[in-house]
Amino acid sequence: MRISVAIVGGLFVGLLAAAPAAFADDKARDNIVRAEAQIKALNAADAGAASANEYQTAQTRLNEARTAEDKNRDEESFWRSEEALLQANIVQEKIKLRGLERTVSEIETGIATLRRELNS
């Protein structure tokens, strides 16, 4: 009876020790999937025009995350996919900023036109 309790206890301790590794693996894989989706959702032409360096960095970090995952380096894979997500966020915000800058420019052009018409 004592031996079976010791065996069960040993198995339980082994499962607890392996759980963080399995959790880290799932977390890294989930991050890679999120980064892939976010990068694919970006319009490549807009991303290249608004922020080519960050867009390229996001793709590079995603590839590094996939490579690390293939080599079972879960922690590195997680961090590289986090970097890819952050770079993709930067690109997305720069695309929005570029759109806002175009809108401001159009409004300023419209105001200048109205002023000229009023003064003539």
Write a brief caption for the model.
This protein is mainly α and 120 residues long. Helix content is 94%, strand content 0%.
Task: Describe the protein in words.
This protein has 120 residues and is mainly alpha-helical. Helices cover 94% and strands 0% of the residues. α1 runs antiparallel to α2 (44-70) and α1 runs parallel beside α3. The radius of gyration is 25 Å and the shape is rod-shaped. 22% of the residues are buried.
Radius of gyration: 25 Å
Helices, by number, come to 3
Counting DSSP E segments of at least 2 residues, the number of strands comes to 0
Helix content: over 70%
What's the overall average pLDDT, rounded?
83
Gap from first CA to last CA: 103 Å
Q: Which features does this protein show?
A:
rod-shaped; 120 residues; mainly alpha; 94% helix; 3 helices
